[in-house]
Amino acid sequence: MKNMKEEFILSEIWYLTISGAFQRANVYKEGITEKEKEDFKRNLRECITEIAEDYENEVVIEDTVHLTNIYKIMKISHNCLNNGSLNFGISQKLLNLYLKYLWCLGKIPAPPHFPVDRTIQEKLGMKVEPWTRMNDESDYMKVIQKARDFLNINKEHKNIAKLELALFRKEK
Q1: CB neighbourhood size of 88 (10 A)
Q2: Host H or E run for residue 2
Q3: Chain segment 40-87, per-residue pLDDT in tens
C-alpha cells in the first residue's frame, strides 16, 4: 500500500510541476495531439526523476552541477514543442519546482536553487525578467545571487530554499 500512496503523491507532484512550468509558457505547437504531449511529458518525467536522484544524498550540489542538470532538460527535444525543445527558463522551473516539492516532503535535502519566476523576483525587489523567455543562466543566476545577498544580510533563513519558501508564503 505504501508504494501506491507514494506513487500517487509523486504523480500529483509531477502534475503540479508541469502545470507550474508550462503555465503562460506556450510550449506546444498548435494542432498537437494529446498522445504527442503525453509522450513528451513521459520522457521529460523520466529525465527529471533521474536527475532528482542525484539530489537525494548530496548535502551540497554545486551551481555548476545544477546548471548542467537544467541544460540536460533543455536537450530533450520533441516535435510537439514550439521551438523543438524547452528554453532555460522553463527547464529551470521544471527542475527547481520538482525539487522543491521533494524537499518539502522530506525526500531530499534543501535544493541549491529555487523556482525562478515573476513572484520571487518581485519579492526580492528586482526588475522582473520574464522567466518563460530566459534562454540561458545569466538572468536566472542574477536572481539566485540576489537571494544569496539577501540571505547574507538577513540571517533568519539558513538557505535560499527556505528563504524562497518564506517569501512565497508571504504572498498568500
Answers
A1: 22
A2: helix 2-22
A3: 999 999 999 999 999 998 778 999 999 999 999 999 989 899 888 999
Of 108, 98, 109, residue with least CA distance to 21:
98
How many domains does the chain contain in total?
1
Q: How far apart are CA 148 and CA 46, in angstroms?
A: 31
Q: Cell digits for 56?
A: 537525494
User: Hey, how many other C-beta atoms are within 10 angstroms of the C-beta on 156?
Assistant: 9
Percent of the chain with pLDDT over 70: 97
Residue pointed to by grid coordinates 535535502: 109
In Å, what is the CA distance from 92 to each residue of 54, 113, 154, 157? 16, 9, 25, 22
Global model pTM greater than 0.70: yes
Give which of 153, 101, 93, 87 is closest to 125, Cα–Cα.
153
Residues contacting residue 95 through CB under 8 Å, at least 6 positions apart: 48, 51, 52, 66, 69, 70, 73
From the DSSP assignment, how many helices (H) and strands (E) are in the chain?
Answer: 7, 0
Boundaries of domain holding 84: 2-171
User: What CA–CA distance (Å, rounded) separates 172 from 148?
Assistant: 23
